[in-house]
Design brief:
alpha+beta; 6-stranded mixed β-sheet; 2 helices; 18% strand; disordered N terminus
């Protein structure tokens, strides 16, 4: 049984190395309507264009690019990446920002996580999953 698992793992590694599995850019799955290549920092994540995000997320992205002001006190705080879903970086590399959700009385579940190297990630489920965000 252990031998079969090892053989299967080795075969998967060989296929990955040959480019038979996964996406050639190693940058995740591009948005179906996007012709943009997946950036290297998006490895393993679905990639979406900012135009495909909710209006509130696009507003948050604009505020991040402009340096604020931000509507929530916790906006700009360090995101620890404790879930391990984003590429591993030193503490302080990632900052989180609230994406308001219409009808929510609190901050809701939607966030933009911004990296120090201008990478952007969107989560609509409070860090259960992320999409890499590219701007056309």
């Amino acid at each position: 049984m252990l031998r079969r698992i090892l053989v299967a793992l080795l075969a998967a590694v060989a296929l990955l190395s040959a480019g038979c599995i996964g996406n050639e850019s190693r940058g995740g799955t591009p948005d179906a309507n996007s012709s943009l290549p997946s950036p290297g920092w998006a490895e393993g994540l679905t990639v979406v264009t900012s135009a495909k995000l909710p209006e509130q997320a696009r507003t948050t992205l604009r505020l991040i690019d402009e340096g604020g002001p931000f509507p929530y006190e916790k906006d700009g705080s360090v995101f620890g990446n404790y879930e391990g879903l984003l590429p591993r970086q030193d503490r302080g590399h990632y900052r989180e920002y609230t994406v308001p959700t219409p009808g929510e009385r609190d901050r809701g579940a939607r966030r933009i996580v911004a990296g120090a190297d201008r990478e952007r990630y969107y989560t609509s489920d409070h860090y259960e999953s992320f999409k890499a965000v590219v701007t056309p």
